[in-house]
Amino acid sequence: MGSKLYPGGSTSRLRGDVLAALGVWKVATADQLWRLTRPGWRDATGLRNALRDLHKHGLVVSDGWTQGPRRKPPKRGQKAIPKATAAKKGPGNREPRSKKLWRLTPAGLDAAAQVLPEDRDMGSTGRGAGRHGAEHPMAVNEAILAFIQPRPQPEDDDDVLDDGQEHDDVDQEPLAGIPQQEERPPGIGTVASWTTEVVLPITGSVSSPSKGSPRADAVLVAPETDPPLPLLCLEVDNGNETPERIAAKFERYRRFFRRKTKDYGGEFGEKQIPYWRTLYADDDREGHPPVAIVFTGGGERSLNNRMNKVHDLTRDHWAARWQSYNGWRSEAREEDGWREYADTIPIIVTTLARLKQHGPYGPIWWRYGHQPGETLAAALTNHNTHDDYLERHVALRKQREAEEAERRRQYEEERQQREDEEAAQQAAAAEEEARRQQCQRCGQPRHDDLWGQDPTLQYHPPPDSAHCAACRRELAGPRTRLGRMARRVRGDT
Description:
Helix content is 35%, strand content 14%. The chain is an alpha+beta fold. Helix 5 (135-148) packs parallel to helix 9 (352-358). The longest helix is centred in the C-terminal third of the chain and has 51 residues, at 386-436. The radius of gyration is 46 Å and the shape is rod-shaped.
């Protein structure tokens, strides 16, 4: 039960969460607010009660339904417009149930500013957005929900009334005694990390932008995540715009990212910096901030065709130029140079169904220029940058030096082996020659080449290729009788 001040029995914390969500979304259904703020509750009854309490105090108002304005009964004398009937009964032929849309009043916008970060632009109240169904804002809300992936929090069970009196907890009971929701994939940030309908001024200021300035469906600021996202622009395509119109937005995005302004706070005095860095932090990634497109409102084949069409139409904005110190050559390879990302916009795309199922960190992203099915970190990583080229160049130089050192080592080994073989051959030849030059009688060198040159050998017999000079002389026999007797005594023949 509630109190006189808050008949719906809502708590102050729940009302604050609803105000914060509507301050970001501008327009939402009770079902979306339930899935964002209290995903662990059984249903959205507690959120509807909180909206009624806020409506009682003039902070929120409902001025539409998700299927557009409801049919009014015909006036007297007018013929009623027949409703379209389904061919057969069944869940596949049922029209989606119409849901009430809620937005903030000016007083509610001021109240939402008290619960959201102080430095954010609150924008408008979203007046009139719900009069024709708010189909596109609903798709943006669903995309933000898929990014955040809200999970039940223990503190959601501890809400208390804030009306100056003590009350028991009267909000919708949490999911007690029934199976818990399926395990959700990890999400990014909270609803306070997002801002919708953000103007990015090409010229002028944020409060007074020039004509033609892009307006992002939503902007995510989450520098604490991995990878850091100090600025991620989100576009949601639910099939109401042609691919040509979607592609035309990126020329305006690039004009905003190219805008320069003077920075007087640098170490070296005045310098030119991108204007967007005065509004958001920089993540030191080369190139412009990323833009994500979430496609919905069609079948798988239809959405893939739209992705491919936008891919072709935006090539000039996401394609990085190939550079090389050797210039362009027809036979050049990708690794012979690098890609310049300085003036490129990283465009990452996925479908809402994949984002809901796998979360923002899942392998669902296709960055134009990469292969599909990458994680967020891989999709935001620039391929073949100048630093990558330098690393490859240094690695290639080290590899070449190692190969050259290996070649020199092998050459030295082969040269040493040849020298050793030649030395062994020379030693063997010398040994063989020495053996052949030995005297067969005494084993001493014969020195046949000295005969005829050395005067002391002139009385020795000529060389016989078998004995040295001394042995030849002895074998020749003495010329005197005394010599012959001496030979006979020694036994020489």
